[in-house]
Amino acid sequence: xxxxxxxxxxxxxxxxxxxxxxxxxxxxxxxxxxxxxxxxxxxxxxxxxxxxxxxxxxxxxxxxxxxxxxxxxxxxxxxxxxxxxxxxxxxxxxxxxxxxxxxxxxxxxxxxxxxxxxxxxxxxxxxxxxxxxxxxxxxxxxxxxxxxxxxxxxxxxxxxxxxxxxxxxxxxxxxxxxxxxxxxxxxxxxxxxxxxxxxxxxxxxxxxxxxxxxxxxxxxxxxxxxxxxxxxxxxxxxxxxxxxxxxxxxxxxxxxxxxxxxxxxxxxxxxxxxxxxxxxxxxxxxxxxxxxxxxxxxxxxxxxxxxxxxxxxxxxxxxxxxxxxxxxxxxxxxxxxxxxxxxxxxxxxxxxxxxxxxxxxxxxxxxxxxxxxxxxxxxxxxxxxxxxxxxxxxxxxxxxxxxxxxxxxxxxxxxxxxxxxxxxxxxxxxxxxxxxxxxxxxxxxxxxxxxxxxxxxxxxxxxxxxxxxxxxxxxxxx
Length: 478
Prior knowledge:
By secondary structure, the protein is α/β, with parallel strands linked by helices.
């Protein structure tokens, strides 16, 4: 089995030497398209063996194959200026204009990936070195393929320090917990309208694969896993990751889910399950808020995504999503959005997380909301997740771990009020103008009431203490 960690370290060192790469975001985009092409080509070889009629959508001269004379797969192949010219002037133009006429879904994916990404490296020698490093991995070898989890996590950790790229990363523990609690089933359509690097989608895929009885059934149910992502780098990473999770043609649209008119959705567009961490704190682009009814138009992306997700769920559909504290409170449009949620859905659970879960790129308090469409909310259960004992905050080296959430899983099916959990009736929430930002009552300061006799006694004690202090001060001066 290839040493994935060692290969990644080697690629980083090579890329740091290239003058064309400016910062982590460009380095990750560069690695992204190279890794995608390697994985895609390895998958093509597997499909050709399984189906003699299958033909790769990538023309042979641009394919990544391990044979003499090949531009990528041959470790002794072209290098220097010749390789740089091939990548910039032949490879990218060819794959951006790949033939779609045969209706091959995999061809469409290739075009989308290469239309949205670029070659930043300026040294053909360095490109050759990176290609050779990637040639050490064979994604058709089971052990190498499974080891991609390590590689993928390494990329996601790099995303955390890549500036705004960090917005696409949801901690693995969070995606796994939400997926486990919503529990998607075979035959259900699962959707993430802001899928980022595909964390929720891959968790759903693994959940469904574990329930599939055979390979044929597995392929059928995996087609129901869908996503949307409008930024090139996370779209590329999500697509690559799903290919490695046995989805031949990932059903991810390269689009902003907010770009479609709200009224254009029909019953056929609705889904059974939504798993998502919609972008929050951002401003909606391209005036997409005008695609929504007047009463819900806002520039706050998280609020528009919440309205969209409520709309997209089928009757009886389930959702598990991440939202910041800011979406739980506020008046005007925010209040109307929450009212729609409580009236059309049973918002049965809110898990309150510490504000450091999404560090280092976001230091805001977040919540996990679980709801089912079709019945109005009657009661909401809250659970406050606390940091491990002795730990002041989560960070890059000490992130939240899935086992830390096991107490919530144990509580989930046998709910009782306690130091970390409490239940709120919807009537009291309506009285609060649909404000959902309800703190743990066990941590509220208790208001102590005194009768008149007790108050007089406390005043006498206070005066007596003051008189003693004044007497001491006079004596000191005297």
